[in-house]
Amino acid sequence: QVVSFNVTASVAAGTRAFALINLGSTAAVSVNSSENGTAALRPTLVVTYQAAPPPPSPCGTSAVPGAVQHVIWIVMENHGYSQVIGSSSAPFENQIAAQCGLATRFTAESHPSLPNYIAATSGATQGITDDCRPRECSRNVQSIFGQVAARGLTWASYQESMARACDLEVGTGTRPDGDYAPKHDPAVYFLPLRPGCRKRIVPLGTPASGPLARALESGALPAFSFITPNL
Length: 231
What we know:
The protein has helices at 8-12, 81-84, 91-99, 113-122, 134-137, 144-150, 197-200, 211-218; strands at residues 71-74, 155-159, 201-203, 224-228. With 231 residues, the chain is an alpha/beta fold.
């Protein structure tokens, strides 16, 4: 007689070893091994599997989306187009480019970094031509952050390796100039944002803890979030 045992649930739970145990039955039990001379009596292991479904597109489905509740803007640099698109070293970026969108005619407003960050968030470089610090070249102009607030919505700037909220100077780290750089944190350059900036311009934290993780866990993610990795 052939007896089958489905061990799918046990394997899924992490069990990898199995045994047949006599719990006291008086019936004679004969168990055949894989060396039995009769092939039909040899026990066999049957493994069945289903291919994992393809991962969902990071941009969702082709259905018409509902109202946008949150916008997260992540800025990364410094690599040229050919160093990212088609590179095996940037699999996630290439997945997004293929499934979501790719702006092939987007170019820098200026060089170095800061004028681009200022232009991207305020509509112009505001006369900034270098990577000056906030105490040297902050501007009393409006920005996308202020526009969000004017609509009664919330915003936050999450900065990796920032030592303290609303940090206007380079932080401490392994690099001589610090791992956090204000030149990649445009919100600290807009003077209208200074009141209350300690609540809105904050350290990024880690995937498990910190301001961003808490906002995600508590359902308090701002309507607009600006995220910059460290140097």
